[in-house]
Amino acid sequence: MTETTQPPKTVEALFDEGVERYQKGESVQTLIPFFKQICDRAKRNSPAWTCLAWLQLLADKPYAAFKSAQKAVKLNPEDAQARVNLAIAMLETHQKGVRDQVELLQQMMMVPELKQEVEDNFQDGLKRKPDWNSLKKVRSWILE
Question: InterPro entries recorded for this chain (predicted)?
Fold first, then answer.
């Protein structure tokens, strides 16, 4: 009998799998270690760091989220969601510089596609965590 082994999944395939699991409603507690593994395998993968920060924020881990969001923004300064995550984490950890992030986000919201993506993520966040005051503040600052 010949055993066939599957080649290891690519980082992109793992990332897509993680996003799909999130969208299906899997708990953030199980997804955080999954995305940490992706970030460990691909340390320069900004979208993975952005997702990890979001999950950490949902799990009430703002200090971990702050570090993950900082990494995501450093890797891709034009990623609006990474900056949203950073602004929320900064609020929740009482960091200085939130206004700078908000001002950059306000400029980014001039792009309709970015604005829609960020708004969709705000809606998702409020569905999953209805009393998320930091998210509500950042949302009002950049969208209203």
Answer: TPR-like_helical_dom_sf
